[in-house]
Amino acid sequence: MLSIIIFLLSIGMQLAAAVSALLLIRTTGKKLAWILISLAMLLMAGRRLVSFSAFLTAGAKGDPGTSEFIALIISFLMLMGVLRIGEYFQSIHSTETALKEEKSKLEAIIAAIGDGISIQDTNLKVLYQNQIVKNMIGDHIGEYCYAAYERRKHVCERCPVIMSFKDGNVHTEERSSLTDQGTRYVQITASPLKDTTGNIIAGIEVVRDITGRKLAEKQYRDLVNNALVGIYKTNVRGDILYANNALVRMLEFDSPDDMASAGIRARYRDPEVRKVIIEALQKKGSVDNFECELLTKTGKIKHILLSATLDGEILSGMITDITERKLLEAQLIHAQKMEAVGTLTGGIAHDFNNSLTAIIGYATVLKNSNITQETMKGSRKVISQAAVKEFNEIYNTVISVGRISANFFKTDKAIQDKFSYAKTLGGMNQTKPDKPVPPPAV
Description:
The protein is of the alpha+beta class. The protein folds into four domains: 2-108; 114-210, Beta-Lactamase (2-Layer Sandwich); 227-321, PAS domain (Beta-Lactamase, 2-Layer Sandwich), CATH 3.30.450; 327-430, no CATH class. It has helices at residues 2-28, 31-57, 66-113, 131-137, 145-150, 160-167, 211-225, 245-250, 256-262, 271-284, 323-368, 373-409, 413-418, 422-430, and strands at 116-121, 126-129, 171-179, 182-194, 200-209, 230-235, 240-243, 286-295, 301-311, 314-321. Strands 2-1-5-4-3 form a five-stranded antiparallel β-sheet. A hairpin with a 4-residue loop joins β1 (116-121) and β2 (126-129). The protein is rod-shaped, with a radius of gyration of 55 Å. The termini are far apart. The model is unreliable at 418-442 (pLDDT under 50).
């Protein structure tokens, strides 16, 4: 009875091992290998069946021999081995599945970043490219990056990957290349990839297409450089960080570098004005249309309107040249003063004419009248008094006009040279008689 049990256990375990081996085909994907192993186990089980059949034919008598126990042990070990191998491969399969899922997630994250990513080994061979890099420059896995990306036979100068290999830090470079669509600009950021011991095993490049930004910067730069007003950027210390062409021309410099070497402090006619501007910016953050005076490289004075904003230590803004406007305003004021003087002078002439007309009229009446000497003497006194009164009024008006004119003319050397009587008017301004001298009695 024991022998029958041993035979059946041995055959059952061999068949179970064969079936388990077949099931591993699905887990490992190695179909031929596991089929051959299963076939070998089935043949061994078949041999045990033949032995069991012979044992039954012989009457199933006798105790099991040593060989039967050995066969049972071998069958047991075969089954346990296949089951353990199955667990091992199942663990590998689960790990591979998890890795594939993680890889899919990582690729989805990399794709969502929007930048190209490539990995180069320490010999600069391309190990990996995401789809964005492939769309930019094609699939070059296995090639040297300098040959694939730059079409060179040697390592590029200032290669960010090489620099990251040397110092272990992150490095960024901007590059340009000519393509069928025109010049393409990219920003490359390289960082080292290290193993668990800290050794650098590869370099990761993040490639960002900055063509749009570069074109926008060029358009902005062209707009600023061609602006009619001065545009600048300085720091609080007074260093000129940027000046457009209009500002360079306005202040009579040869180039932006020439202007930057001189600094901004020397451009203010009154150095205290810049301190006032800085204080206002620190309080309010911006200054609009602040009127002040700047000096050109040759020492000329420029009247300007300054607008600025402060961002940390950086000042930026615009400068408008109003020198011509200030000159026109001065000329307008001069013209208005001349108009006022002309109006006053016309009034004086009118008053003088009226007074002379009255005096001449009275004298003519006396001359043609048949009156006595005594009457004429009295009339002559009245006429004389009236003439003195009118003369005093006209004299005071003339002195007032003279003083106004003297103040006007002395402010403008060009007008003094043009009108020679300005000195005379200046002298009148110093004259302060207590009373005008009356005309001689008639």
